[in-house]
Amino acid sequence: MTYQNETAELEALYVLAKAETKVNNKPFLVWAGGDAPNQQDQLYAQFKERFPGIDIEIVVDLSKYHDLKIYEQLNDGYLEPDVVMLQTMNDFENWTKMGVLEPFKSEGFSHIREGYSDPEGYFIGAFIFAFLPQYAKEEVGFIPQNYKDFLNPIFKDKLVLTPPHDDDAVLYVFDHIIKKYGIEFLYELKKQNPTFVRGTAAPAALVGQKGFLGNIVGYPTYPDQPSQSFIPEDDFFITWPQRAAMFKLTENKAAARLFLAFLASHEFQSSRGFWSTRTDVTELGGLNPLDDYKNTDPLDFISWMRDRKHIHELRTTFKDIFGEVKGVSPLKDPSLFRVYYKTL
What we know:
two-stranded parallel sheet; single chain; 2 domains; D-Maltodextrin-Binding Protein, domain 2; transport; alpha/beta; thiamine binding; 12 helices; Iron ABC transporter substrate-binding protein; periplasm; signal; globular; 344 residues
């Protein structure tokens, strides 16, 4: 299959975006959900290389912080970001109902899986994210298969975890754990005396270092890392399509369309080496197609995020058992910067 129509669209939008930058004299600004300042460095570099002359800035912060600022700014009648990419799925549906999003369907839009994007193009499923459990490759004397394996005595005092009541995606995983193993799992986990570190990036990076041996909700790993991620044998794991959209108040509309078209393109999606939101991108790195895994469902997290009452109740449960979330934002903690940039 050729994608000449997508390439032609990108080139046409690129011309418009370059002309726009000369008029607006304002950087194209993307707000991205995340918890480490370098999480969008690869996307930034790809876009800059592919479309030189477009002055792009990507600001990473927790999705739950970005969205509050967006609601406040919308209420005041202005908006800083041109495009937002967030984990808070429910926000995009709210903004669609509020009539504040600008619809756009690129040439690649029709290839995105059903249910990931808004049918009218008000937002798109930009890329698949996944959290997977991790263990230290050298220090753990067995290969964990499921979440309950982290209750093994070898992990006592050596688990590093994201506070589940600080991140909805992590909370979602623990909700599934409770449904399978009961609330007793949490009390057994508490006996393991885990170390809680805000954000998902730092706990994932610390496994295999500083004496930490495991993380229940971590990142997919690479061969050169001291930890190994795994897809649970039969426990549920989370995958979701991170959403992206532009607004009616977006100032750099041509650049926003170019960016969204690039995210949806086969060119970008096939470069990630991971599961794709498109139906026509082949998985790399030994992964099976996402549909082959019966213990994950990207659409389920979308539905789950709509039930804010249930989420609030879950947060309260974790606060009662493990205490309040402690520490400053993971994007403002200097001690974590050494973890993100591997200068431990």
